Amino acid sequence: MARIFRFLALLAIVGFISNNYVNAELSEIESDGSLLLNNEECGKRHYEKPEFPVDSRLFEQPWLVRFGFKRDDLVIYIFQGLLIHKQFVLTTVHVARFEDFGQLTYARLGEYNTTSERDCMEESSKQNKDCAPAVQDILVDVVIPHPDFNLFKQSNNIALVKLRSAANVNGLSVVPICLNQDPDVEAFLYTASWCGRRDTGLSMVPKQYQLEKISPQDCSDRMPGYTIHLSDGMFCVIFGKNHRTPQADKKKSPNLRGGNGGPIFTVQGDNKIYLIGLLSYGPRYPAALNQPYIITPVAPYYNWFTETIRSDLEKRKYTSFA
């Protein structure tokens, strides 16, 4: 009998802790959900100058998440998403439902150089202060595609990936990105992703490119033979002028193959990174330097993000004793 009482007491304690944990998260949510996502920790940059070299630097894109697709015992990491909450990653429906390499099973956080066991500022450095913490491989719990996703029109191509357990947001190699809420924002645009040509393979570190927004008509003119549907604030971008100069060595030319789900971002006045949109789709490979990519913006979906995450927290609250 004493053992039963001790067991019940333990269950009560665990339930109390779990319930308090969820209540603590819920207490952080303002009526517009702003503190849930765009909190003071989001988008913090490790570098002060507003410049983005093509080969990204360590700790420069700590919100980038790589996805692991599993078939049998083989796991292949490809495509990306953005950490927007310690337990939710934002990506496209195309990425979340990609099945060529198996089922979306893992999210890898804190990755930088895909060929190194440990990422450091300098390869010769062995001091902990110059190296990143180990990557975090977290099981995917559930994929939540936008309910109005339209495959034919490629509209509402956005999805939330819930992680089985919360990420360890360490403020260095794992940080959530801030979300833009202004649909009319005008800003310098950049992208970052592990991408590359077929003959070179995907880049070892995320590549960063400046982008330019173009008009819908210009977008259609540059994509003859394509029917482009731009709805809900979708827009087109091309590589910035400094990237459109043809290279003698084509292997050095920018290419976003493999960049699906990658961020379109900007730097705002507080020196924070804000996510403007996601790379939804683009021209067939090999893409010409002046061909556009179509972007799904995040501002129109901000309420959907917060409502979906809030609903999940509420559900966890009422099932914490189950």
TrEMBL record:
Keywords: Signal
Domain of life: Eukaryota
InterPro entries per the UniProt record, alphabetical: CLIP_Serine_Protease, Peptidase_S1_PA, Peptidase_S1_PA_chymotrypsin, Trypsin_dom
PROSITE patterns: TRYPSIN_DOM
Biological process, per Gene Ontology: proteolysis
Record-annotated Peptidase S1 domain positions: 36-310
SMART domains, per database record: Tryp_SPc
A Pfam family matched in the record: Trypsin
Signal peptide positions (record): 1-24
GO molecular function (one): serine-type endopeptidase activity
Family: Belongs to the peptidase S1 family. CLIP subfamily.
Protein name: AGAP004638-PA-like protein
Organism this protein belongs to: Anopheles sinensis
